[in-house]
UniProtKB/TrEMBL annotation:
Any one Pfam family match given in the protein's UniProt record, by short name: 5-FTHF_cyc-lig
Protein name from the UniProt record: 5-formyltetrahydrofolate cyclo-ligase
Gene source species: Thalassococcus lentus
Keyword Repeat: no
EC number: 6.3.3.2
Signal peptide positions on this chain: none
NCBIfam families from the UniProt entry: MTHFS_bact (TIGR02727)
Similarity-based family: Belongs to the 5-formyltetrahydrofolate cyclo-ligase family.
UniProt KW Nucleotide-binding keyword: yes
Length: 186
């Protein structure tokens, strides 16, 4: 089995586990993420606008926006890093690429913390996304400029100890689930 086939199989299993967790718990489990972000008041960060069965970071993003800039990712084109548009709880939004909402009048910035959606994760900081490589390219670019923290936000059921990884996959620094925090390497 090729690496791409292994990733496709892991992605399919991850989506299935995430859907079960989403249906069982619902999207509103952002309390643990708020607790983590409280330790970084005023630090620029980016969350994401949840789609499908992604865990919902919006309550934590709303709280953080009272203390500093919060953004959401914007996809410009395939094969390119993401850009981050400043977001506020009541700002006008339009549909962006892949159906995710983005600010109607974007003002771009580079966050120091990136809350990353995912399909599956491992306790060692491995992350399996949708397969486009957007977050890997983006984190590599941001980390080439300055320390950038990647926080995976997921349901505990999305954990997979056997995620197939490749050299370009960027690690997570912290994983937040409804069950608690996972600190890779700690």
């Amino acid at each position: 089995m090729t690496l791409e086939q292994k990733k496709a199989a892991a992605r399919k299993a991850g989506f299935a586990r995430r859907k079960v967790a989403f249906d069982a718990r619902g999207p509103g489990v952002a309390g643990k993420l708020s607790e983590v972000l409280a330790g970084y008041r005023g630090v620029s960060l980016s969350g994401y606008m949840p789609i499908r069965t992604e865990i919902n970071p919006l309550p934590a993003m709303e709280e953080a926006s009272a203390h500093g800039p919060v953004g959401v990712p914007v996809i410009d084109a395939a094969g390119q890093p993401l850009r981050f548009a400043q977001w506020e709880p009541d700002c006008a939004m339009i549909e962006g690429a892949f159906g995710a909402q983005i600010p109607a009048n974007p003002s771009f910035f580079e966050p120091e913390i990136v809350i990353v959606p995912l399909v599956a994760f491992s306790r060692t900081g491995g992350r399996l996304g949708y397969g486009g490589g957007f977050y890997d390219r983006t984190l590599e670019l941001l980390r080439s400029k300055r320390p950038t923290m990647a926080i995976g936000f997921a349901f505990a059921a999305q954990e997979d100890p056997d995620i197939p990884l490749e050299a370009t996959d960027q690690p997570l620094d912290l994983i937040v689930t409804e069950a608690g925090l996972i600190q890779p390497g700690a």
